[in-house]
Amino acid sequence: MALSINGTQIPPPSDPRVSLLDLLRETLHLTGTKKGCNQGACGACTVLVDGERVVACLALAVQYDGRSVTTVEGLAGDGEFHPLQQAFIEHDGFQCGYCTPGQICSAVGMVAEARRGVPSHVSSDLLADVVPLTRDEIAERMSGNLCRCGAHNGIVEAIAATYADTTNYAEAAE
Fold it and tell me: What is the residue range of 155's domain?
């Protein structure tokens, strides 16, 4: 079998102890995914596996054999930024930029959760088919991704500008 990394098939590592993060950064040289705390607490290494958020520092690469992994590099296409990447620029959603790739991947995964009606701690309707992404909802859902520079307001604004309109879910999540 193989892992699909940003649409490219690669064999799983021969050493089963290699983290997904180290495979991405050290073997494949996809350095957009950052190594922050290396303990799963900061979210800098967040990638998407089959569209769901995963902290790559805690995941063994062999666990994802046969699955599709998307990094921040895989979100852009045809020389164009992903809509959320562009929104981060327009809304000052980054300062040093270290957490930005994890923030962006996490936000894309978070939108898929809201589309499926997965509630958060602040969701007002636990039975809703789709959870509206209010400012409070976005902030709560993104709380696992830390920004030490204090760009949280810009991050929430960028996500809200891209995804707050639920009719925009389909285009923006792709």
Answer: 83-173
